[in-house]
Design brief:
2 strands, mainly alpha, two-stranded antiparallel sheet
Amino acid sequence: MTARKPQKAKVSKKRPVHTYSELWHGSKILLERAQAEIKGSKWLWMGSLILTAFSFEAYMNHIGPKVFSSWETALEKTLPPESKLEVIWERLEIDLPKNERPRQTVRDLIKFRNNVAHGKTVPIEENTTPDADQYLDEFLGKRPLAIWEEYCTQENALRAREDIEKILQMIHNRINPKNDYLFSFGIGEHSASIKDS
């Protein structure tokens, strides 16, 4: 008796990858890990902030084509992230004060992202006159920080996520795209059939 050949299956899978959602989820995971273990968490806050910034940028590129038919050919590659938000808000008639939350948070977050993404070695010098009796040891033990290093705090990571979520929610609610839910990972589909031998 001869062994039966195993049957082959033809499998097909597909799903849209909502990059902004994946980055948003990663930002949350890093923030939660930082909150669980505060010691050494500066790097996790930094990672969370970077992924929040990337998520914001990816969302602009996700929703932009739903607002402008020329997004991919004329706007996506030419506008910086904050300008993308401005043109989308102008088209959707959303107006919030520029120097207040949540818009100020976008400006701060993008500035941080750019400082890290285009990082370079910079000299930092700090001169002060602390009280030599009580605070000198404490002062000497703290190293001077770059602007981007100072931004890596739990407070800023929480604020960034809160304010970016508000902004994305405003845009999404205004557009209300069909079968496109904010922060969804994308619904996949798959099928399998037995191939004829």
